[in-house]
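Shape matters. As here.
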Amino acid sequence: NITICEGAAATFSVTATTGVGSLSYQWQLSTNGGTTYNNITGATASSFAQASVPVGQNGYRFRVIVTAGCGSVTSNTGGILTVNAFPVITFSPVTVVCLSDAAFSLSASPSGGAFSGAGVSGSTFTPSVAGVGPKVITYTVSNAGCQSVSTRTILVNECAERHLTLSQY
């Protein structure tokens, strides 16, 4: 069995020996949980490799038929390919705030990830801690080891119009 993130490569291999003749191989694929298998065109080596496997192949099963001078042997139950998707992040923080604004909560989905960046503590952004200027906020989340990262920029302005002069006290 192989577990990968979508877009990664996967290789199934078999080791076989014979004392009679030479070995030949035919890899097969099942898309229905092992009920039926079909030959994979051109997959006739002791290993079968795929580059950039799509998430749509999650749950596919692979097996090999090895043939020698005395007959054929089919690998037991097909090796199962598990393809985990990268999380799709929705992350929409406020984009412009004032340095004097109160701290506020950041939110993103899927849940369970972590925020980071200047002015961030847990899932709270505090403009006065971040300071004036553009602040890059990052949200990182994983799905079975497949990690996605999304960034947004929050612009923290001085907002001088909010300052009180001594004559205004």
About this structure: Residues 127-130 form the longest helix (4 residues). The longest strand covers residues 146-157.
